[in-house]
Write a structure and sequence with these properties.
Elements lengths: L7 H40 L4 H15 L3 H20 L8 H28 L2 H9 L4 H31 L11 H12 L2 H30 L4
Helix pairs in contact: 1-2, 1-4, 1-6, 1-7, 2-4, 3-4, 4-6, 5-6, 6-8, 7-8
């Protein structure tokens, strides 16, 4: 059944795959998730703010990012950020950003649009009476959001936030287009070097499935634990 398969190539490659590839993937996922949640929450608050220009600007950003393929955004940031950075600081030569930081910036800004919509739904799920109570206590809009609304919104949206993080983990494989050595990129290098594409890509698929399915099961269990009885 497995005649012709060289499973030893996987065993020999495990240190490189996890030390270089998976480290890159996990680090990128965690940094993009953290930055995306922070900026996404800010965008959500801007979209719900009473200032029309602020709300329209945040909405335009979210709609733009959600309407463009991620792979194109990766290309844009990778090739344009060095020139934009040079223009901002007044340098004559493009600044050296590199694949890793280009990926972090790209995924943070892109995922912020999706986390924004998740947080906006979470904020809107909090009863209006909570906001009125904050106003009655003399809190302004930002204080009410930070101290009353957002803690409840995070609880309501935590399973959805974690689900989006699973999608983010899978999407990090797209950084291969800028030659970044993520988990898939590391496997691709070994596959091309040893001419063992089937073995390496099958192993990558199995690892992604195990991680994603395991995290999905954890999200489902968490959702059951924090569910509010009706």
């Amino acid at each position: 059944m497995f005649a012709g398969y060289d499973f030893d190539v996987i065993q020999r490659s495990l240190p490189y795959l996890f030390r270089e590839g998976m480290t890159f993937t996990v680090t990128l996922t965690l940094m993009a998730m953290t930055g995306g949640v922070v900026f996404g929450t800010l965008l959500a608050m801007m979209r719900l703010a009473g200032f029309r220009l602020v709300s329209m600007a945040a909405g335009a950003y979210v709609n733009l990012m959600r309407s463009v393929p991620l792979v194109l955004v990766i290309f844009w940031f990778f090739f344009l950020v060095p020139y934009i950075g040079a223009w901002v600081i007044g340098a004559k030569q493009p600044i050296q950003v590199g694949p890793f930081w280009s990926s972090v910036i790209t995924f943070t800004m892109f995922e912020a649009a999706y986390y924004c919509e998740i947080m906006r739904a979470g904020i809107q799920s909090v009863p209006r009476g909570q906001i009125w109570a904050g106003n009655a206590l003399g809190l302004d809009y930002w204080q009410t959001m930070g101290r009353i609304v957002l803690p409840q919104a995070f609880r309501n949206m935590l399973p959805v936030l974690l689900t989006q993080t699973i999608i983010l983990f899978q999407d990090t494989s797209l950084v291969y287009v800028i030659s970044a050595t993520d988990f898939l990129g590391a496997a691709a290098k070994i596959a091309n070097r040893d001419y063992r594409l089937v073995e390496m890509y099958t192993f990558v698929a199995v690892v992604y499935f195990i991680v994603s399915y395991g995290m999905s099961a954890m999200v489902k269990r968490l959702q059951e634990r924090i569910a509010v009885p009706r």
